[in-house]
Amino acid sequence: MAGNARAQETIFALREQIAKLEGRPLPALAAAEQADLAQDPENHASRLDQPRLLLGVDAVDNALEGGLPLDGMTEIRTTLTADTGPATGFALALASQLKKQEDADAPILWMGDVVSTQEGGAPYPPGLKQFGLNPQDILYASPRKLEDALWLAETALVSGALSATIFEIRGNPKHFGLTESRRLALRAKTAGRPLFLLRHVAAEEASSASFRLLVEPAPAAGRRLPDGSVLGGSIGHPVFRLTLEKSRNPAPLSFLLEWNPHDRQFSLGPDTDRDTGEAFTHGNSPTHPGTRLSASADRQDRPKTLGSVVAFEQAS
Question: The CATH number of the domain where 186 resides is what?
Answer without folding.
Answer: 3.40.50.300
